[in-house]
Amino acid sequence: MQLLTKTITDRNIWNASLAKMPTSHVLQTWEWGEFKAETTGWKPHRLAFFNHGEAVGMAQVLTRQEGPLRVMYVPKGPVLDYTDEDVRQSVLAELKRYAEEHGAIFIKIDPDVVIGVGEPGAPDAKTLPLGYTIQQEWEKAGLRFSAEQVQFRNSVVIDLRRDEQDILMDMKPKTRYNIRLAARKDVEVRFGDADDLDLLYELYKETARRDDFVIRPLEYYRKAWGDFMRAGLAQPIIAEYKGTPLAHVIIFGHGKRAWYFYGASSNEERNRMPTYALQWEAIRWAKSQGMAVYDMWGAPDDFDDENDPLAGVYRFKSGFGGTVVRRIGAWDYPANKRLYALYTRVKPALIGAMRWAARQRLRHGGPGEA
Description:
A 9-stranded mixed sheet has the order 8-7-16-10-15-14-13-12-11, with helices on both faces. By secondary structure, it is an alpha+beta fold. It has 2 domains: 4-152 and 329-363, 3-Layer(aba) Sandwich (Aminopeptidase), CATH 3.40.630; 157-318, Aminopeptidase, CATH 3.40.630. The longest helix is centred in the first third of the chain and has 17 residues, at 85-101. Helix 2 (30-40) runs antiparallel to helix 8 and helix 6 (173-184) crosses helix 9. Helix 9 (274-288) links the parallel strand 14 (257-265) and strand 15 (293-295). It is 39% helix and 26% strand.
């Protein structure tokens, strides 16, 4: 299949087309590219791949100079119908060619391709052959599993196409109890907006101090949260008791999917279970918006490792009755094999630190950063 590759320079065209594509993801939206450009120095290029005049794939490629070296990253993309072998192989060939022609030493490709569902070893766990097929195709095409996994491969997802009562009944009894307890203990939940950014940040700072992780200055979150709220891609939800904010979540939404990216809570009134009330309201809100999936974003790589930083978070998330989804992760195509080998030898300590920092941020919400 010979594809025609076009660069898209119009925000509305890009986002509207993206929302209609299979495996569409918020990290492929126009706003995410602009956010990365303004905060971390990545330059976005939006590529659409056409077959006989029809868009069959899309990829927002982020490019950054690291000294004399140029690297590329496709977060949660490319977006396409991965069941179509001709399309997926043709789009991959176009991305390889793009990296080579633009002087990148490698391009990291991190699609939302599922390789299995359920915890490995659990009675209901199963593997999906398509994910393994794609891994084999990529190995033959010269890609390798990346040592730097920027986003988590695993997450917990909730099917929103069911009735609310069915969703609630799929939760663990203790989770349902805590949701109802929050209501009995007079926790009130409201929807916020960009005017609440200072409040959201103060709760986030309090969470960071309590749980000992590093956050960025407020101006960063004015973009990470505020710009997406104003674009209609993020919704903050705040839990209060007698007018005092206790906790919040910030839910990102695009197409038919919602993601729980950020959350924070106060040290006060924790016995009122505000975080349970928030998750239930977030699920109900996403369903009311016509979304089919609520993605709780982030589960351990090793579900048996109690020392994994996500172990406790996973116990909380798993109470809401979702399904573990395991993905193939990020893969690198070394467009310049010599420099790629040098890069991966010289920078292992930096890559390890980046992975650790990404995991720490994701432990408390938010997409990882390359």
